[in-house]
Amino acid sequence: MRIGLITSDPGHQLLADTTALLTPRHDVVALDPATCDPATPDALSRGSLADVYLLKARTPRALALARLLERRGAPVVNSAAATGLCQDRTAMAERARRAGLPFAATRTAAALGGLTAEGLDGPAVVKSRHSRRHDLVARADDTAALRALAADWPEEPVVVQDFIPNDGWDHKLWVIAGTVFAALRRSELAPGGRGPSLPLPLGDLPRGWPELVREVGSVFALEVYGVDVIDAGGGIPLIVDINAFPGVRGQVGAPRALAELALRTAARGAPDRRGGNSARGGRGAADTLPGFPKPLVGEGRAAP
């Protein structure tokens, strides 16, 4: 089979390790959204499509490329629509709360500069409305701190969440096709800033948390995603962010889970486009699965 990676960084650990698992029997090709112009009608002809694409980029060009591939009949994980939804923190919060997920109460301001006139009633977390690299995520304890942020980001559309007292640790929970991986990371809002990720066995999570993060995938139509959760007290979870296709670095079993997901998705999608034959040697899509390493069911241990 032919697996496409939509990314400007095919050497990313998760993608590189997944590629190493796939390449003995499958072709893996990378599409850089920075150089592949989705506005060009013939940028990707139907005959050159891969059997599945993994969307490990969230720029506007990457989303446009993913939408083009979907229109041409290629399956994309995650879809452009699901990925785009997670880029808008206002839409994300609305979807989560409508579904009954314990998502932090979120309000939106068209520009951070305009928010300063309202002031703050207490500590708050201010984030860029549109999630991207190097976006704004900061704690403001009072109106003076809010004004200081606004001096640097006056026109930035933002969301504001009340700061919930917690132990200063973020629970980083990742899911690949239903398999949950977990780590603890010192919050970037804690004194001293963000620290390294620490191993977190799934058995150490409060009861019900793995099921909760799997439900997030159903609500947002995601197969590969991350959920940032804080303990609001007594094991009560509060979701503060959701990310499509995060890095999932250093998690034992994550590359294999991703490789297996790619092959399963390709096997389901290929018959619709190729009459039951894969892109290589005319073999049926299912013929590429036997002999692949046995799935590690339930494996979700953090790397030591």
Short précis:
It contains 8 helices and 13 strands.
Could you explain how this protein is built, in words?
The protein is an alpha+beta fold and 304 residues long. The chain is built from eight helices and 13 strands. The chain has helices at residues 13-22, 60-71, 80-87, 89-98, 112-115, 143-152, 209-220, 254-274, and strands at residues 2-6, 27-31, 52-55, 76-77, 106-109, 124-128, 137-140, 158-162, 169-176, 179-186, 197-199, 224-231, 237-244.
Task: Label this structure with key terms.
Rossmann fold; globular; 4-stranded parallel β-sheet; Dna Ligase, domain 1; 3 domains; 5-stranded antiparallel β-sheet; 304 residues; alpha+beta; 8 helices; disordered C terminus; D-amino Acid Aminotransferase, Chain A, domain 1; 29% helix
Q: Roughly what fraction of the amino acids lie in strands?
A: 15-25%
Sheet having the most strands: 5 strands, antiparallel
CATH fold node name of the largest domain = Rossmann fold
Total helical segments: 8
Helix/strand-derived category reads alpha+beta
What's the helix-strand series? EHEEHEHHEHEEHEEEEHEEH
Strand order, main sheet: write it out: 11-10-9-12-13
What is the CATH class designation of the largest domain? Alpha Beta
Helix content: 25-40%
The overall number of domains is 3
Distance between the termini: 33 Å
Compute the CA-based radius of gyration.
21 Å
Low-confidence blocks of residues = 270-304
Overall, the morphology is globular
Tell me the CATH architecture of the largest domain: 3-Layer(aba) Sandwich
